[in-house]
Amino acid sequence: SNFNEFTPPKFPDLSTVKARLVWNENPYGPSSKASAAFQQAVTEGNHYSWGSLGKLVKKIAQKEGVETKNIMMGPGSSDLLEKTAMVYFRDGGNVISGDPCYMSLVHVAKASGGDWKPIKLTKDFQHDLDAMEAAIDSNTKLIYITNPNNPTATLTDTKKLYDFCDRVSDKVPIFIDEAYIELSAGGLKSSMAPLVAKGKNIFVARTFSKIYGMAGLRIGYMLGNEKSLEAINQITRGGMGITGPTIAAANASLDDVSFIEDCKSKITSAKKFTYKLLDDKGIKYLPSETNFILFPIEMDGDEFLDKIYEYKVVVRAFKFWDQNWCRVSMGTQEEMEYFAAAINKILV
Ligand code: PLP
Question: Which residues form the Aminotransferase class I/classII large domain (predicted)?
Answer without folding.
Answer: 23-343
